[in-house]
Amino acid sequence: MKHLLEHDWEIIPAGGATGKAFFASKNNEKLFLKRNSSPFLAVLSAEGIVPKLIWTKRMENGDVITAQECLNGREFKPEEMAQDGVAKLLKKIHESSPLLSMLGRLGKTPYKPEMMLEEVISALDEELLLDPAVHKSLQFLQTELPHVSSEKFTVCHGDINHNNWLLSDNNEIFLIDWDGATIADPALDIGPLLYWYIPRDDWKHWLGLYGLKYTEHLQLRMKWYVIAQTMLSIGWHKSQQRYQEMNFWGNYLETVF
């Protein structure tokens, strides 16, 4: 990685499970480097959704390295997810034609509820299926599947955890970590955001900022996707033997009902 830059740059791993991200710093200049980012990153940068893309370079071994601005700022705190800028940025993402067009060119097709249900079933082993909350949740997903269809499919982030939202020192808001981006019902993003971070009494206000009317059908879709994502988390954490996280999401599953 060092040979891509001039001398005197300090490069350190940025953490993360893939080991593909690095921070580079020299004097007062900072860059965020990543190996083999999707071409989607260029459109996200152009739309102002992620920090500005500075350059892209292809290495001799075929790897592509991207460099983005490394801004001074911080991750969002959970209670900050209720602020107006979050709703407005998510609306911008969901309504972006360039983002949708690029994902289509990259081969993404709509991620429909029945596809997600298949993933949920595959993620659950026999022991998990014996858990009363998991069993009840799976029955809910299967029963309500015919009722959660949506005519609108948009670019969805897929993991709107507050750690993926950044606030710069200039009060710019960014949403990062787009490796799981997909084309889906926007309720895939909206549901977890509301369930995890917004008090129920404030849902109508938040949806008003986003530009949606609170309806029973929207509520059902949000609940369906929250339960499905929670069950995927339970299955994944168990497969990784991360039992504390598995139990956390298992307990959360009971609260959704």
What can you tell me about this protein's structure?
The mean pLDDT is 91. A hairpin with a 7-residue loop joins strand 1 and strand 2. The chain folds into two domains: 69 residues; 181 residues, Aminoglycoside 3'-phosphotransferase, Chain: A, domain 2 (Alpha-Beta Complex), CATH 3.90.1200. Helix 6 crosses helix 9. Helix content is 44%, strand content 18%. The chain is an alpha+beta fold. The radius of gyration is 20 Å and the shape is globular. The protein has ten helices and ten strands. Strands 1-2-3-5-4 form a five-stranded antiparallel sheet, with helices on one face.
Short description:
The protein is built from ten helices and ten strands. It is an alpha+beta fold. Helix 2 packs across helix 8 and helix 4 runs parallel beside helix 9.
Give, in spatial order, the strands making up the sheet with the most strands. Answer: 1-2-3-5-4
Number of domains: 2
Uncertain runs? none
What is the C-alpha radius of gyration, as a whole number of Å? 20 Å
Q: If classified by CATH, what would the architecture of the largest domain be?
A: Alpha-Beta Complex
**CA-CA gap between termini:** 49 Å
Total strands? 10
Question: Features of this protein?
Answer:
single chain, Aminoglycoside 3'-phosphotransferase, Chain: A, domain 2, 257 residues, 5-stranded antiparallel sheet, 3-stranded antiparallel sheet, 2 domains, 10 strands, alpha+beta
